[in-house]
Design goal:
- By secondary structure, this protein is an alpha/beta fold.
- The protein contains 14 helices and nine strands.
- The strands form three sheets. Strands 2-5-8-1-9 form a five-stranded parallel β-sheet.
- Helix 1 packs parallel to helix 11.
- The longest helix has 19 residues.
- The protein starts with a helix and ends in a 6-residue tail after the last helix.
Length: 284
């Protein structure tokens, strides 16, 4: 459900859970429920891959990219640059998904370098002799363990980390970065009893149909094919995310209780708008 909302409104996601709970599998399935690429998106992405020498048989890119750099990757490999500047992983994920597994294990400068592209959809690489701007409008999907050993809060296996170790691990992700991730979701371990159940789940195709309908609502609302709810400015939020008095009271109480920032307040409204679109509802 969280990834369906993410795909519908292009909301960045952080999944938190123990090893083996399915975080990577969920991320890898995300492109199968996203809306198809438009011609403009396909051309943009193809040009990036062509300039990087990554086009296969000179064929255009017709499916959304899914990039999974390792946590040992350098800042240049992720954001781009070098002696002869080339696009990095965030640009190769343009119009697609950038999946960062073991998110806190990435180098701190790499994580902080994501701020500009997450906000603006582009990255500027500056060198002594030149400055180059690469497109980097991607959907960030990140995953992390709840603690260094991975078992904090896991009922099936005790955690061996101290409180200070857990705090140090989680502090690797700064507030400004977490503020730019709309959906934070816990992914608990699946009980072994669930493996034996013969339940029939929804297909990706059905979920994708709902995502496409929500995308069409957004395209009509903003009069742009490649504009998502997650990109709404404060003035757009005021126009399209109006609440009734009961909902407004609830939101204000939550903001006061949890000391949410203005960005988080707007983030909640953007998510609510996407959920309403998936429900084909004009009102939140």
């Amino acid at each position: 459900r969280a990834l369906e909302i993410s795909a519908a409104g292009k909301h960045n996601v952080l999944m938190i859970g123990p090893p083996g709970s399915g975080k990577t599998m969920l991320a890898m399935r995300l492109p199968t429920i996203m809306s198809p690429m438009t011609i403009e998106e396909s051309l943009e992405t193809t040009m990036i891959y062509s300039s990087s020498g990554l086009l296969q048989d000179d064929r255009p890119i017709l499916t959304r990219p899914f990039r999974t750099p390792h946590h040992t990757a350098s800042e240049i490999a992720i954001v781009g640059g070098g002696t002869n500047p080339k696009p990095g992983e965030i640009s190769l994920a343009h119009n697609g998904v950038l999946f960062l597994d073991e998110f806190p294990e990435f180098k701190r400068p790499v994580i902080e370098a994501l701020r500009q592209p997450l906000e603006e959809g582009k990255i500027t690489v500056s060198r002594a002799s030149l400055s180059i701007q690469f497109p980097a409008d991607f959907l960030l999907v990140s995953a992390m363990n709840p603690c260094p050993c991975g078992h904090y809060g896991d009922e099936s296996k005790p955690c061996t980390c101290s409180y200070s170790q857990i705090l140090k691990y989680r502090k690797k992700l700064s507030g400004p970065i977490l503020d730019r991730i709309d959906i934070h979701i816990e992914v608990p371990r699946v009980p072994v009893s669930e493996f034996r159940k013969n339940t029939t789940e929804e297909s990706s195709e059905k979920i994708r149909d709902r995502v496409i309908r929500a995308r069409e609502i957004q395209a009509k609302r903003f009069k742009k094919n490649n504009f998502f709810n997650s990109k709404m400015t404060p003035s757009m939020i005021k126009k399209y995310c109006q609440l009734d008095s009961t909902s407004q009271d609830l939101l204000e109480k939550a903001v006061e209780k949890f000391k949410y920032s203005a960005r988080t307040y707007n983030k909640i409204l953007k998510l609510a708008r996407t959920i309403a679109d998936l429900d084909n509802s004009e009102k939140i």
